[in-house]
Amino acid sequence: MRIRKVGVVGAGTMGGGIAALVASAGVPVVMLDVPGDGDRNAPARQGLERQTKAKPAAFMGPERARLVRTGNTDDDFALLAECDWIVEAIVEQPAPKQALFARLEQLLAPSTIVSSNTSGIPICVLTEGRAAHFKRRFLGTHFFSPVRYMHLLELIPTADTAPETLEAVQTFAERVLGKGIVIAKDAPGFIANRLGVKATTETFRHMAAAGLTIDEVDALQGPLIGRPKSATFRTGDIAGIDILAHAAAGLAAATGEDFALPDWVRGLIAAKRLGDKTGGGYYQKRGKEIFTFDPSTGEYRPQQKVDDPELARLAKLPLAERVRGALALPGKYGDFVRRSVLGAAHYALTVAPTLAYDPVAIDRAMEWGYGHEAGPFRLMDMIGADALRRGFRDLGLDEPPLLARADEGFYRTRGADEEYLGFDGRWHAVPPKAAGAITLAIVARRPGAILEENESARLLDLGDGVALLEFRSKMNTLGSGVLEMIERSFGRVERDGLVGLVLGNDDPRTFSAGANLAEVAGAVQGGEWKALEATVRRFQNMVRTVRHAPFPVVVAPHGLALGGATEMALHADAVQAHAELYMGLVEVGVGLLPAGGGTKELLFRFTEELAAYPEADPFEAVKRAFQLIALARTSTSALDARRAGLLRASDRISMNRDLLIADAKQRVLDLAPGYVAPPPRTIRALGKDGIGNLYYALFAFQEAGQASAHDVRIGREIAYVLCGGDGPPRLVTEQDILDLEREAFLRLLGTKETQARIAFMLATGKPLRN
Asked: Could you tell me how far CA 105 lies from the centroid of its own chain?
């Protein structure tokens, strides 16, 4: 059962977001909404337009919006017959959904899958009155907003859902859409929203009992306990306070539990202070200042960030130590943390078996859907069973049966493998995050899997003759320790006769932030210019090794891949990129130019692309490279990186981050048979024929007030390298341009302006314009 075209009914926030993600994956979409007055397709078309303008961007590339065909549910309903999967995302009421499914049953082929994106209506209720064949291909598919960025997709099969229906949607969503799949039971709120909304409504009560402000609650319920920086109230403003109210009311009606909101929250809703979408909710931005709502007065006051030495100390510790430290805090802060953390744990222990089939699903739902660093059961293991029991007693809570049999915890390691304690009281292997996924932490536990290692990186044996070099420095920066391990790794792969190498890691956010600026700044302060020159040459030699190694090298970038990380990717035989890729040559932000082969590689790549067109102006290649480097352009996705030229058409994209390493390994195996390293290259450099054009452009920018004098100096150095100097046009080798790169880099590094930019970046994390 293959899914080649998707229909979406409902062009609101969720329907439009689902359509944008499917189209971003390259799959055609039909998106319908109710007929409008006059222009009958206006509701669907406007829904698509909202997605093209969304911040953050809903589409991974603006051109993918052309894959979405819009229409209305009266005139264009028959278009859905062409689709293999129909996702319903209309008003959250049973009757309209049931009416839509009755119409779809009459239209669709027996193999077409239908699902509802309901966030809480029982799935079995939605198929009441439908034929058995319709029920077999029906299930719940609960996406989270914003759809592109939230990894979680809860699948909710019913007793009637055919196994092949569930398998088809899971495979497509996992592999093509890049979702983390959790199978949920058909219970109110499913998994993530049941636990998440309950935690939020309980937060209001604990906040009142402890006498805390909104600012204090967000300081205590963010990274301190493994939650996102947006914590509770900032997250609420992003999601919409009215959405919380709707979910809480639905859960209260369905479960009989207390999901009541305090009067002051209901007052915000009545006043249309719903969060970001209305210009303010719990927080309000006025110019550059942030104001916080004060429930005691009903007014906004300037935000008062919590300045507590103990919280600052805990913030630097690993999660397990942070949480245990937070639970031990004195006074009202400790009282609030204990009530909120232990209360959430007790609730999860109590209801988990009714929501999911195992604790792993509970944890992944909260990690992927709410951005928790560790799900409830992993967090409970960090706290410890005995500490939980004591905490529950102190709060007057009973000991749930799941905790009673968890003396060893809910997870344990056996050899290289991890097991979880099931709701049946037995131990089971933790399933991979996605079918075929490779987890490096598990690989590293296998005997003999670590081939080489230092404090900054390690070389792992992935099996089948493929090795992987994993950076492990802070932000995976490319300091001396990483360079040493790269050199050792290439030698080891060749010496052991392995078939190829992957450069990648399992960091959730950063492939590599590029060069270790602190090392560079230290060397400058020490006047170690010969050492700096040797380091730049060493890095250049490293990227040349990436290109000319006698075995295939595949780079697997994801998240942030900046500066030197982009240079490594540019020199690889192939790139297997995650769809969410923010890569670029950003060195000008600290007053430098790319000197690890990045300037050279863009020049050669873009010049060679023009070779097939004899009439093309070779200056276009130079200009294109200059714009990328001088503007420090960073991609907004892997598709955007391909459009910019940072990725080639032959480079591949993995939609699912969990499958990136496995996909990169397979790419090495594909390239290995009969592999021959690419030969050295030469191109014709433009010299003075091209450099004048770039110098004039820089002059115009300065005259318009868009570039400082130092910006111009950096730009002139970039132009000099890209044109192969300011002499007559000539044939140049890759080494010729590398030498120019290195010399220009060191000249800029010697200026006080560049040194000031580096110092400012290290101190603030932000670029300095000087």
From this structure: 37
Distance CA 86, CA 169 (A): 11
Tell me which DSSP letter residue 173 carries: I
d(CA 127, CA 157): 12
pTM: 0.95
Give the single-character DSSP code of 751. Answer: S
Which tokens sit at 385?
């069973």
Containing 663, the helix (H) or strand (E) segment is helix 660-671
First-to-last alpha carbon distance for the chain, in angstroms, is 59
Q: What is the pLDDT of residues 476-524, one digit of tens each?
A: 999 999 999 999 999 999 999 999 999 999 998 999 999 999 999 999 9
Q: How does pLDDT run across 234-246, given as a tens digit for each residue?
A: 999 999 999 999 9
Rounded to whole angstroms, how far apart are CA atoms 178 and 186?
23
Q: Could you give the CA distance from residue 342 to residue 350 in angstroms, rounded to a whole number?
A: 12
C-alpha–C-alpha distance, residues 352 and 195, integer Å: 9
Residue 416 confidence (pLDDT) above 90: no
pLDDT at 257 over 90: yes
3-state secondary structure of 156: strand
- Specify whether the CB–CB gap between 381 and 435 falls below 8 A: no
Burial bucket for residue 105 (CB in 10 Å: 0-12, 13-18, 19+): middle
**Residue 578 pairs with which residues in a beta bridge?**
654
The closest alpha carbon to 558, from 476, 454, 485, belongs to 476
**HEC per residue, 268-281:** HHHCCCCEHHHCEC
User: From the CB of residue 245, how many other CB atoms can be counted at a distance below 10 Å?
Assistant: 18
485 within 8 A of 528, measured Cβ to Cβ: no
Phi and psi based region of residue 275 (left: phi greater than 0; alpha: psi -120 to 50; beta: remaining):
left
Query: What span, in angstroms and rounded, lies between the C-alpha atoms of 388 and 410?
Result: 13
Q: Which amino acid is at 196?
A: G
Residue with tokens 């913030």: 315
pLDDT confidence tier of residue 707, bands split at 50, 70 and 90: very high
Q: In what order do the strands lie in the sheet with 283-286?
A: 283-286, 289-294, 299-302
Residue 501: which of 665, 674, 675 has the closest Cα? 665
* Cα-based angle 423, 424, 430 (whole degrees, multiple of 5): 65
E strand segments, 133-192? 138-143, 152-156, 180-183
Residues 6+ apart with CB under 8 A from 129: 98, 102
Confidence category of residue 1, pLDDT binned at 50, 70, 90: confident
Confidence of residue 183 (pLDDT cuts 50, 70, 90): very high
